[in-house]
Amino acid sequence: MQENNSVLTLKYLPDGGIQLDRNVCPTCPVNVTSETMKENVMQKNPFLNISILFRAFIALVLFSAFNSLALASLVYYDGFVAGEDLSKGEYVANPGADTEGRYRLTEGQNPNIPGFTGSWQHEKAPWDFGAPLAVAPIPSLEYPGVVSTGNAVARRWAEGMSYRRFDNVFRGEGVRVLYLSMLFQLSDPTAEGRFELSRIADSSRNGVGLDFNSIQRGRITPFGAFSNSPNTIPSSDQTNLLVIKFELSEAGSRFTMWLNPDDLSAEENNQPIFQRVVRNLDINYLVFKRFEGGTAENGIVFDELRIATAWDSDLFEGTLRRSSEP
């Protein structure tokens, strides 16, 4: 910017002030606030004053917006919130043709959740927000260091599967790193089921996930690409935290899995329970599966599903604002 053959350079300082450099005016202030600058530097030209302040304001707004986007690592979040508005990411009672009053994960249940496309589908019997019908949807699971909102999804003793298709969150060119975190609970430690991120929605262990009691009784078994982890954990009714790291590339992908990591502040401070390199790791679906077995009303419960680009606070605490929200 020039005034009377001189050049003004405007810079923001860490302490909140503004640095003004003018190459023909060694007595100009070096560090001034916006009020001092307005009164002492630009009083010769009111139009110039307005122009510079407007440009400074726009630059600050753009910088703040860019900085917020650059720091946000969360790309997907579902707290399974029972509500009345699908456009706000809420789950509704009686989705599609359903008339039994449940918040079911079935055809027509298509909450606006970034990272997904289409509605939930089901086979045999759908997962829902808990039983019995006369009781309000079950509350969200809780785990130290993890922010919980809304409700949770569960399946009773009868066999059934619900699944929903991802959009392109696991696809793209080059090397990509994604982290997934999720809470789960076996309110009935004998319940049999499976959680899977898979290529096709048939829950045949073609992807990455956890098996509950069906591979080994009394144990939770991580698996990936048809291979079981040698490390398992006992089935219990406590709330557990699953974290999976995906290092994706066309040449070969690696996934690393943690169960109940001790230190949520840093990835390197935790010992993984399973790691495997896969040539073609192709993920299209999120799958919840319940087999026969167990007696509890809500034998297997899932909640707080997050996908982020880094192991940071967003992976355990972040939430996403839906596009329809103010």
Structure description:
- The chain is mainly β and 326 residues long.
- The protein has two domains: 2-70; 75-317, Jelly Rolls, CATH 2.60.120.
- Helices cover 11% and strands 33% of the residues.
- Strands 6, 8, 10, 11, 12, 13, 14 and 18 form an eight-stranded antiparallel sheet that branches. Strands 5, 7, 9, 15, 16, 17 and 19 form a seven-stranded antiparallel sheet that branches.
- The longest helix has 26 residues, at 46-71.
- The radius of gyration is 26 Å and the shape is globular.
- Residues 1-10, 20-50, 56-71 and 322-326 have low confidence and may be disordered.
Unreliable parts: 1-10, 20-50, 56-71, 322-326
Note the total helix count: 3
CATH topology of the largest domain: Jelly Rolls
Major beta sheet summary: 8 strands, antiparallel
Annotation, overall tally of beta strands: 19
Gyration radius from CA atoms, angstroms? 26 Å
Identify the CATH class of the largest domain. Mainly Beta
Secondary structure category:
mainly beta
Task: Return the string of H and E elements.
Answer: EEEEHHEEEEEEEEEEEEEEEH
User: Span from first to last CA?
Assistant: 37 Å
General form: globular
Which whole number gives the mean pLDDT? 78
Oligomer: single chain
% residues in beta strands: 25-35%
Work out the helicity level: 10-25%
Please, how many domains?
A: 2
Q: Assign the CATH architecture of the largest domain.
A: Sandwich
Highlighted features:
2 domains, 11% helix, eight-stranded antiparallel sheet, mainly beta, globular, Jelly Rolls, 326 residues
